[in-house]
Amino acid sequence: MRIHDHSGVPTEALELLKGTALGDTGGSQAARSFLFWLDGQHDPTGYRGDGALELRRLDEQHRAAALKVLDWWTTADRVTDQPLRQVLDALVEKFRDTTTDPKVLAALEKLEQAQGLVNGSPGVVW
Prior knowledge:
The chain is mostly helical. It is about 55% helix and about 0% strand. It contains five helices and no strands. Helix 1 crosses helix 2 (about 25-40). The longest helix is centred in the C-terminal third of the chain and has 18 residues, at about 100-120.
């Protein structure tokens, strides 16, 4: 059973997770870690989470949203990854402005470079 229709991006679920990930709570950390894990990246704050295991830290509403996003992200007929990349870009931008840790800033730079390589490849869906 699919969680949502393949033709649509789970926009509401992504927005819920993004809104949470922009915060500074344990749930924010878990949502942020999960979203970056989907793309094979590290949380720009420097937190090293446990990928999908972060779902255990989310409440029922956020866990359901994360599962919708995961289902969409893993479908073979997904035509774009831009909605997730836009969320990740917003998170990178938010946390670039709030950190002064050189290791975190270096990680942010590497993340941007990696995303630039992926985003700069027209016609490739990751």
